[in-house]
Amino acid sequence: MRRLLLLVAVCTVVAALHAAEIPSHPRELKYPALKYDPPRAADYRHKLATGGTAYLVEDHELPLVNISVLVRTGRYLEPAEKAGLTSLVGSQMRAGGTKSKPPAVFDEEAAFLAAQISAGIGDTEAQAQVNCLVRTVDSCLALFFDMLQNPGFAEDRLKLAKSQALQGMQRRNDDTAGIEGREFARLMRGQFFTTVPSTKVSIEAITREDLIAFHEQYFYPANFTFAISGDFNGKEMMAKLDKALAKWPNRPALVSSVPKPSFTPKPGVYLVDKKDVNQGRVRMGHLGTTLSNPDHLAIEAMNGILGGAGFTSRIMSRVRSDEGLAYSAGSVFPSGRYYDGVFSAMFQSKSPTVAQAISIVIEEIDRMRKEKVKPEELATEINSSTEQLSRRFATARQKAAQFADDDYEKLPEDYWQKYRDRLRALTPEEMQRVAQKYLQPGNLVILAVGNVDAMLKGNPDKPQYQLTKFGNMERIPLPDPLTMVYPKP
Amino acid sequence: MRIIRLIAFPILAVVAVAQQLPVQEHTLDNGMRILLLPRKGSANIAAGWVARVGSVNERPGITGISHLFEHMMFKGTNAVGTRNAAEDAKLNLELDKLKGELRKEEAELARRLRLGEITDVKDPKVRTARHQELLGQFEIVTKRQSELIVKNEFDRLYTGQGASGMNAGTSEDYTVYFINLPTNRLELWFWMESDRLLNPVFREFYTERDVVMEERRMRTDSTPTGRYTEQFNSLFWKSSPYGWPVVGWPTDIDAISREEANAYFGTYYAPNNLTATLVGDFDPAVAMELAKKYFGRLKRGTVPPPAVVTTETPQVGEQRMSASAETTPEALIRFHSVADGHVDEPALNVLASLMNDRTGRLFKSLVLEQQVANMAFARQDSRKYEGFVEFRGMAKPGKTPEDVEKGIYKELEKLQTELVPDRELEKVKNNLAAANFRRAQSDFNLLLNILINDASRSWRSLNTDPPLLQAVTSADIQRVAKKYLKPENRNVLILYRKGAN
């Protein structure tokens, strides 16, 4: 709890500080031990009468209450011919008013109360939130639960949202960053629920009845996990929740599981041409593993050393600091909750030096496999993760959200309690083992988006670097943004 | 931190509270300001400092130096970042000398480009043998220095101790450096930050500007609208130094010399031009002892930072720019308004808030009623020396940016001719008041707010401005609407989609 008091320690005399000389290097500094134990979710967990779970973290410092609910559903449950449906269900729950309040009325009430209310549906979860002032909490809760239970999905707001969606589609080929994300996902996943694009036809096929049906199918109390934090009394809050949920038609939580992709990426170089830019955006990678793999923490640490830890990591050091070839450069290796994650390294470099930077990244991936990391590199990486653990739980809001997420993702109950010891047990040998097992420099899909002619021409001062040296080359044309049909090359 | 609730008794208000931040304010003997906001409980500290310098303090020829500096401040010191400080310093001198020689060659190529004798100064074929030889030598010395450098040691020392989110930002008015620390590593922060202010070494001074050029390409050149908004910004500010981009003009980024950098550092990074702030879980008495011990070592600057002289010359007629870009067609209408802290600023802020969000006037009018736009926003941007208020809307498919422009004028006229109803004004004030609490939900957010405000007027504006917003009346809004939203004070950017009819 974060109750604030004026510090009583103002008159503490810190005589020891005067005496101490300033050391010539910070490695000579001595620190008091940090006593920190991560909080246990069980201490904050409450079962709702209707079957869901709520995590309540009280914090009376600010007169605010945050309520967030996770709902087991997602884009994976959307039929391909109605691509874009779940995104509209999420946005229109908030924008379309409720059964008893037209959008204008609902929005005016929320705005006058200074309540921030939102809803959205992602790939594998839905989330709705309200942040409000404690003195208006009952009115805000009433609005929030009305939205959650009885969304109006007003026809005129749906029409507007579709128009906005079409406008968003028209921007699909404008920004190289957007193209990079889209095409890399397609290269990694092939046809999969995460890569099925909405089109003009699929958006126009979506009706108000589709929204209502989707909402009815997945939004019911047993399917909710709440994260609640702020200025309230726990018992009273539970009573409010139980009361709000009591009259809601309920059924046992039963939602079909997330599918797994079956696609095998094809290594090689893929080029997308955007004539009007002077910088190429590169993303290169291959498939990874899942969170249930006991190696996932070792992989995360290994990737931290390779490219995941900002300036401290090798890719940043070489591509940016040594060579000045990019402003941002690095790698990510997230393990998937439901299916294999994707390892990828990325940077942006002026067109002529794209090939040189790719070559450096491949060298660094190779080096992780060939050489053991230095003990001090590993120590920095481990210490960084262990000492930062408290930041995950720094505020009441973060605590409640972390507990709810872990519950939703079915993380082991003692995960954070064991987290630091598991990291401290890692060795340089272990780093090399997971690098050899999970990094595949011979199997990279390399995507470059930019001025293709300039990227192919390369740097006349360094002719040894050529895009043609990294394997099979294939050009990806830009699709029609409204149909997502790709012209034949 | 203690929260004091001030009851203002507005008739309709559901939010009758304001929050006073109990920041402890100290000034060291060398003029450096120390602001402390202890909050118990998180085992973390958000720490940072701000230099009251940004692109507004630059001049043609060195535009972008404030931002280049922000990058150089991570390159280490005599103690951090090198295996051999003496040898490293010698190599820096050698590099400067070679760069001086190279500049002569580059100037000659620039002359030939100007005359049309060559078309590409980067083409190796246009270089003289001497030029090529200098490039070779430069690469060799860079490599020798690189072998002495302990790569990114500055970052590594922090990261290895559990600090995270180390970064910095440069704006027109300030340069801010920040990080999150575990609560027991406070002394490390004082050591590291005072060391880089005391003994900075601008290593990789020349390769780092390649990084800055990549940053410019990423943010400006290779985004759909970056180049267009940069040109519009330069059109908008006629004489004010706000007219050049924070990242700088490419020619200048390339040309900045070590002498210019040293002079800039001596003037603007002197302790009398800095404020350091801590927010989070720490003992303020310990923090002050450490501040005296570490920051107390810095010497007050010999010359005070010079005043910013050039202000914006009043605009006498509307300016328009239209262009085709790879983006949604839109209209942006921008008026000169007021600087941070001006008496009209609260009314302009409330005016902009009235226009925004899903119950704001722009959404209701342009999106729902007139159906000319799919999205629309307003904002008052108050900088240290000048400001502007702007209105922007994306055209609905089938509508033109000019339709959006006309729709916006209709709403601006309404602000000038009709008083805002009480309840609508109260709604906006409720949200502005709630924002005071919301910003305090994060230590890091508070840290940035305190630093940025202290670089302009004072951190105290965080406490004094909210009541001014609550005091704004409908008549105030009408008055500022008439005063600033005038055609001759207007600048319009019209963007069409490239390739569309």
Structure description:
The complex is a heterodimer of chains A (489) and B (501). Chain A has 489 residues and is of the alpha+beta class. Chain A has two domains: 44-246, Cytochrome Bc1 Complex, Chain A, domain 1; 268-375 and 426-475, Metalloenzyme, LuxS/M16 peptidase-like (Cytochrome Bc1 Complex, Chain A, domain 1, 2-Layer Sandwich). Chain A has 18 helices and twelve strands. Chain A has a six-stranded mixed beta sheet with strand order 1-2-6-3-5-4, with helices on both faces. With 501 residues, chain B is α+β, with helices and mostly antiparallel strands. Chain B is built from 17 helices and eleven strands. Chain B has a six-stranded mixed beta sheet, with helices on both faces. The longest helix of chain B is centred in the first third of the chain and has 30 residues, at 85-114. Chain B is globular and about 70 Å long.
Task: Give a quick set of tags describing it.
heterodimer; A: 489 residues; alpha+beta; Cytochrome Bc1 Complex, Chain A, domain 1; 6-stranded mixed β-sheet; globular; disordered N terminus; B: 501 residues; 2 domains; 5-stranded mixed β-sheet; 11 strands; 44% helix
Distance between the termini of chain A: 61 Å
What is the CATH topology classification name of the largest domain in chain A? Cytochrome Bc1 Complex, Chain A, domain 1
Instruction: Indicate the proportion of strand residues of chain B.
Output: 15-25%
Average pLDDT score of chain B? 93
Tally the helices of chain B: what do you get? 17
Q: Most extensive interface, residues per chain?
A: A-B, 95 and 95 residues
Any idea what the shape of chain B is?
globular
Assign the CATH class of the largest domain in chain B: Alpha Beta
Q: Largest sheet of chain A, order of strands side by side?
A: 1-2-6-3-5-4
Gap between N and C termini of chain B, in Å?
A: 59 Å
Unreliable stretches of chain B, pLDDT < 50, 5 or more residues? 1-17
Rg of chain A, rounded, reads 26 Å
Strand adjacency order, main sheet of chain B:
1-2-6-3-5-4
**CATH level 3 topology of the largest domain in chain B:** Cytochrome Bc1 Complex, Chain A, domain 1
CATH-wise, what's the superfamily of the largest domain in chain B?
A: Metalloenzyme, LuxS/M16 peptidase-like
Poorly predicted sequence stretches spanning 5 or more consecutive residues of chain A = 1-19
CATH architecture of the largest domain in chain B: 2-Layer Sandwich
Radius of gyration of chain B: 26 Å
Question: What's the total count of β strands of chain B?
Answer: 11
How many structural domains does the protein architecture of chain A include?
2
The assigned structural class of chain B equals alpha+beta
